[in-house]
Structures are given as structure tokens and as C-alpha cells.
Amino acid sequence: MWLQKCLQEHRESCPRNPATALLPSRVIDVGPAEGFQAPYIHVSKANETGEWAILSHCWGQKIGYVTTSANLHSGLGSLQHDALPATINDAIKITRDMGLRYLWVDSICIVQGSDIEAHADWMVESSRMRDYYKNSVVCIAIDDAASDEEGFLGHTRPAEVRIPVSTQYCPQDTDAPSTLYIGTDIAHWTSMMDYRPILSSRGWTLQEEVLTPRTLHFTAKQLVWECQRHQSYESNMTAQSWPMNDSFHEMPKRYFLVPDFGRNYILSSDYPFIAKVLDPGDRWISMVINYTKRSLTVQSDWLVAIGGLAQELQAQSGYNYCAGIWAEDIHRGLLWRLYGLGQTPKSYIAPSWSWAAL
Q1: Is residue 1 part of a domain?
Q2: pTM assigned to the model
Q3: What is d(CA 123, CA 307) in angstroms, rounded to the nearest whole number?
Q4: Range of the domain at 229
Q5: pLDDT digits (tens, 9 = 90+) for 257-287
Q6: Is 206 exposed, middle or buried (0-12, 13-18, 19+ CB in 10 A)?
Q7: CA distances (Å), 116 to each of 74, 112, 255, in order?
Q8: CB 162 within 8 A of CB 236
């Protein structure tokens, strides 16, 4: 319901380009919604277009099934249900139920390993992630699972009465009536960039949060839908406009997906002091602060995991990018400091003058 409503009613603010969106190099073909087809890795043809979901997840300490050079060629791309982690199987089902044919999962659609083929594949695919995220239809975010082995379907949630209730009232500063929605306590969702204590601890997920046009969050308590125009909850199925607070206005997601829509929204709002978020330098600094609070399993991915955001900001601003800093904002880019104890990387990642060096 949420997905279809967004696709039909939010065309100006929530992008969808099925005719021009090139499929990722590999996707999981989940089969049609009706009937059953065993999922397999589909290798896209040149200029093949389509619609896909992406999975935002934490792999966990124990790495389950991943695609390697060996199993990709020997198994001809087939995926056995019993071999896949629970989260991947659940994501395949959700993708099929939403009426989408393809699913992109990093651990399955990028060749993993330390051999030459895996390294070459990683170099190509990591440079394309910006397009994979940005052109996806929806992101399936598993917010509160620390491992792919946990899964996210079929978990028992606390019993809640889900009766949407709303009432009309007039705020003190205006005579215009507004709608007040009453439901489960959702205060922790007022700032989407600050929530998700498990998923948001992973460095790679920042790109997924900012660049994907729509997200279906599977939290420990309920489903939450997020797009450019609406935020909806399983405990209150009535679609609501985004909360009118500072954290909403300052969310960088708005200005990456549809920059003109976000810019016009800011300029027409009653919050002129937050127009600073339109400045590319300010937007980048806020994301670096967010990003550096996260962790990566592979330290050498430090700049790669934020590279898609850099590509998008460069395309919008025309700024010149180098090792996490913009030439046009270099006077601020070099004024960084480290809080706490730093750790010198074992191998070279970035020049010593960049925040990415530590």
C-alpha cells in the first residue's frame, strides 16, 4: 500500500525512472509474484533496464553465504534456500510480495574474496553503487538485526492496538486547523538519521539511507515507511506528512534525490535559518560528522563507502573532490579535529591532511 501510494502520488518528489534505470551488473531474480521460481543470480545484459529493491543490512560477525569466483561459475548463479542466511531469504520474499522482480544485495551481487577476479569486480561495482542506490525502487532496511542469520520475518512483536486516531486542532501561532495523529510512541523516529542503533553503526549504510528514494524499515517493534513526502507506521496506517521540525528540514536525503524539490521546499518554508543546508560544503560536513561515528569491517573502505555521496554531490555542485575534501571548501575541509584516540591505519588510505587518514 505504501509503495504503490508513493509511486502513484509522489512523482515530483520521489524519483522513479524505470525506462532509463540500468540494472546493476548482477541482481537476484526473485521470480514472479504468482507461482514459484527458485531465485538465481541474473547477469544483466548491456543496457538492460528494470526495477529492483536493495537490501540494507548488517552482515554480522559470522559471514554466511556470499558469492565467490568459485560458486558463481560452478553453480551457474543458482541460489539454494537452505544455503542462504535467513535475512536474505526474507528479503527475497518481501521483494516478490511487493511485485518487484529483482533484488540487489551486496554480499550476493558482488564477488567476494581476495583473488584477482574478486578484486577486479569490487573495483568496478563499488564505483557504481551510487547509481544502484539512487535508481532503486525501494530499500529494505533491517534496522535492528546484528546479523544476517537473525532474519526479520515471523518475529513476535509486542501486542499493540493499532487503531488510527486523529483529531483537528489549531496551533497557538496560527488560526489554520491542523491534524493531530495519536498512536504508538514514535518519538525516536522524529530524526531518521539518528535512529537505528544497529544498522546506523555500519559505515556503508549512510549512502543507502541518503541515496535511496524510499525505505521500508523493519524495526524490532513495527514496520516504518519513509519517502520524501510521507512517514508511516504499522501502528498507525494513516500516512502522515513528515514531522515539521529542524531535523526533518536538515535531512540531507532531500537535497540528494530531487535537489530542485528540496531547494524549493526550503526557500518556501518558514525556517529561513536552515537554508544553510543548501550549501554543498555544509551538507558534506554534516554527513562526514555522521559517517565518522560509524565503523567499517575493512578499514581500506573508508573513502569508498562514502564515495557514492561524493559522486552525487560533485554532479550537483561541480566541486572538485580529493580524498574526502572539496577544493572549493578547502579552508573548512582542512579544519578537522579528532575526538578521542585515533588509530593509525595499517596501510595507506588517504593523505595525512585528510580526515580520512585516521
Answers
A1: yes
A2: 0.84
A3: 12
A4: 1-152+186-242
A5: 655 555 665 555 555 555 666 678 888 988 8
A6: buried
A7: 17, 10, 38
A8: yes
